[in-house]
Write a structure and sequence with these properties.
Structural class: alpha/beta
Mean pLDDT: 97
Order of helices and strands: EHEHEEHE
CATH superfamily: Rhodanese-like domain
CATH class: Alpha Beta
CATH architecture: 3-Layer(aba) Sandwich
Number of domains: 1
Radius of gyration: 12 Å
CATH topology: Oxidized Rhodanese, domain 1
Strand order of the largest sheet: 1-5-4-2-3
Shape: globular
Distance between the termini: 29 Å
Number of strands: 5
Strand content: 15-25%
Largest sheet: 5 strands, parallel
Number of helices: 3
Length: 99
């Protein structure tokens, strides 16, 4: 599993990179803001949502602190996806939020 800090991710976004970000937090958590452009798929729905995730591009996975996103990364890797866990999660995110 690959890792990236929230600061490194923000630098990529600021540089204009087109990133595929999946937020695996619950609905109530996402209501408080999500990284702009991120796709919301709660952790409990990842396994049944594999057909909604592009296997041909790297995916960046975020949760509140990094634990659930690590579980999602493991599940996705087992299914052939290229994934990166966003270390520190949304509690360390200092970029813009989408509501």
């Amino acid at each position: 599993m690959n890792f990236i800090t929230t600061e490194e991710l923000l630098q990529k976004i600021d540089a204009g990179e087109n990133l595929n970000i999946i937020d695996v937090r619950e609905n109530e958590e996402v209501a408080n803001g999500i990284i702009p452009g991120a796709k919301h798929i709660p952790l409990g729905q990842i396994e049944t949502s594999l057909d909604q995730i592009d296997k041909n591009v790297p995916q960046y996975i975020v949760c509140k602190a990094g634990g659930r996103s690590a579980m999602a990364c493991e599940m996705l890797e087992e299914n052939g996806f290229s994934v990166t866990n966003i270390v520190g999660g949304m509690q360390e995110w200092e970029g813009e939020l989408q509501f």
